[in-house]
Amino acid sequence: MINTKRLFLLLCMLPCFILAQTSNLKLEKTTSFFPDSKKINTEKIEWKYLTVPENWEKPDGKKIKIAVAVLKSTKNKGSSNPIVFLQGGPGAGGIKGISGWFSHPLREKNDIVFIDVRGTGFSFPKFCPDLGKSFLEILAKNQGKKQDEQQKAVAAMLCKEDLINRNIDINAYNSKAIAKDLNALKTLLKYENWNVYAVSYGTYTAQVYANDFPQDIKSLTLDSPISDISQYYNLNTKNYMNSLEKVFKDCENNPHCNKQYPNLEAAYYGTIAKLDKTPITVKVDKKIIPTGNFTYNAEDFKVAIQQSLYQKKLIPMLPLLITQFKNGNKSALSALVSSFSGALSLDYGAYYCVSCNEAIPFNSISDFDKNAGKYNKLEGGLSFYRSDFLVCDKWNSGITKKENFYNDLSDLSNLSAPVLVFSGKFDPITPIENGEATVRKFKKGFLAEAPVSGHSSSFSSAGAQIVNKFISDPDKTPDLHDLQSDTKVDFITDIKINGGVSKFANSLNEFKILFFAPLIIAVAILIISIFGFLFYLIRRRDDSNANKQMKILIIITALIGLFTIGGLITAVSDTAQINLYILAFGVANKFMYLFTLQWIFIGFIITSVLYFILRVKSISNPSLMATVLFSLILIGIYFQYWGFFY
Hints:
Blueprint: H1 2-22, E1 26-29, H2 38-41, E2 45-53, E3 63-71, E4 83-86, E5 112-116, H3 131-140, H4 145-165, H5 175-188, E6 194-199, H6 201-212, E7 217-223, H7 236-252, H8 255-260, H9 264-277, E8 280-283, E9 293-296, H10 298-308, H11 318-327, H12 330-343, H13 348-358, H14 365-372, H15 383-395, E10 419-424, H16 432-439, E11 445-450, H17 461-472, E12 495-497, H18 500-510, H19 513-539, H20 545-578, E13 586-588, H21 593-615, H22 622-642
């Protein structure tokens, strides 16, 4: 009887304990995180802030706000099968890319929850969102890798000092804490469970979450997974080189690729040696690099190639990219700098909080160097990653820790939820072997290997359909036919290299009316002039020879100019359909005649102007002719601005 009374009292007190715990948590509506975006704000999205303890071991202590966006289903009014998406990094927020999900097949029947995990994106406190820009400026300098590493460490320490001065507990930002944030968010959204979809480093956080809160997981999708955090850095060089060697082999076995890019492997290592002695400095937009210069050294080249292996569309471009580095094509390499900028868009304050707590402590710089030493011609591993050891050594100094943030994932083997794992053949950071090892952790795991992809292989039309069908029916074996139908990389060959194409394509894409207004007016004048002069030549046969010859010259020149402009627009459009990244270097070879036409156009402009100057006294209405000639010259100036003649 006494035990019964005690049990009754305990049950009565339980709601009080729950209330005490949840009273520290809040989920509040807020306004759009993108107030100026009409495209985003026409969609049905719920914007929220989740308030949680900064340190979960101190529930009554300091609070932080985590940004949340719920993209509502297009068909279901109340989502019974919600999805939460976890971005990678670490240090990347999930909300920034929300517009890319508007037409995703998952949205048809499911609400999709995006979260900027603590320390990233629109969450508060904000960490060091501009640290990536500082790193880019360091990479842009003409200096050795040791100087790069040292300056990177100094910049990171300034970030750490700022965080500490703002009373931010940098030990509280890790996958374990994020898992608790996710559990709290699921509860406050009143979901019984949900489908967790994670990519890259987000897959590690997702595994921690599934291990600690298995009841929250309805299904688990892991794209480009980390299978063993203790080898994440140690095998960095091996993972990169294994992927790159697959490119060398596939190109050698492809007759077209091997013909245009013979001895690609030798070209790669030769370029490293060349850049080690003679770096290449290119001009870039000062909005990207304040100095307006970016210097490619051997380390920058290695990172550029490694980052290119991430994307499916860039893998076919690698032989061309390596060749352009080898040839020192400055105009093409200048366009590549913006890709560096994108790769450094993480919040590196959050990156180091996570990496220096739960990744670097279980890897070692000696093992990293030992692994890199197996590739002599590479002349060391990627210093971009090696520098993390130096940064974390300083980052962790002076910080009191109870223990290293080792995450025990042994309970994953008991997870009852089905798991779908994606791995790409060319993935340079989380190789295809990771997928195989990850699947073995779970009771019911499915592996989707993508034979022509790199990182994030589920972000393709075929991958999206597989994820959609899996989440709809996670117990059914996925049909991988469409994902695996392409088994060979279609390498990009037969490209006409021209430095002006990239700038021209960017202008078309941005289409600033003030920039194009003079060109549009010039084109209109030329079109009117062609018809007017043709009509005049037909009706006024008694006109003087000087007038006739001037009009004929202008008609021919204008037709060449207009045809060239139209041809360039067509060339950009058609080439983009093949592979958008080609435009960084040029256009398909079938359009090479356009660049000859440009020179012919310039030749006719010069001829027309000289004829006008010499015969101006014999030409009637010279002011009209001068206006038309100025329109022709203006088109030539635009061609010069875009850089087609370099």
